[in-house]
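Dear Dr. H.,

I hope your travels went smoothly. While you were away I took the liberty of generating a structure for the chain from your last submission, since the lab meeting agenda had it listed for discussion. I wanted you to have the full record in hand beforehand rather than looking at slides cold. The sequence, exactly as received, is reproduced here:
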Amino acid sequence: MSDRASALDLLEGEATNFGSTVLARGESEMRFEVLLRRADGKQVPYSIVARTRGSTVTAREFEPKRLPAFCPERHVNLDGTFCMYWAEHDAIELSDRASAIKWWNTLVAFLGLQERAANLRRWPDERGWAHGDAARFQHIANESAEQLGGFFQSAHSDKRLTAELCPDRPGRSRMLRLRLDGRHLYSVLLDPIRVANQKQPCLCAECSHRKRLRACRHHATAAARLAYALHLQETKEQEFWETFAGKSCCGQLDNCPLARL
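The corresponding predicted structure, in token form, is as follows:
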């Protein structure tokens, strides 16, 4: 980046605006201290190392003091780097001052969640961040619930929606059932993916059940995608945790899946 500021140049230029002091700087790595102001007014120091990785910059604690060296539930990767955002969808490429400010805001928000997690002994975001490949399907489920609108958005946010895979039966297509608080809403066929009964009244708030599902905009597609995405999110989340079988749990959060493994 000879003709323009490097990613670390951009971050260093905004450091003081986020209560940070640069302690050391190399070509591809920068160490700094962040004074994080908590909700109770107390300031706590974090010693952080930022390292360039292509057009993005990772962050990790210089030494694992305030955070565990590794904790998937607190979104600290095996190499100690922070999983501050979903890279596939929300990656921050450091190219200008605006992206540098976004990076700093993301880091400070992430550290703030870590302080709350340490106090609550659980990840404080009630919706939770999906792990690994499950994040992609979480994003699809979020979009689908928003398209359907009405109670779907709040029910999805509150984790009241579940997708149940029906037992295989000879001669019948594989099927999912979407449930709200355990109550059946509709079924989805998996080959191809579609709502089984598209003649049923649409469940969206816009039509108040006056239209059939197949005739109400794109809601038949959104309903099928919602159930399928919820199912795959749960499946991929289980697969994610199984990859860490045998790894030690830091013990800092209650009900951590890693402890159960």
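Two observations you may find useful: Helices lie at 7-14, 87-90, 97-120, 134-148, 151-157, 219-242, 257-260. The longest helix spans residues 97-120.

With kind regards,
E. W.
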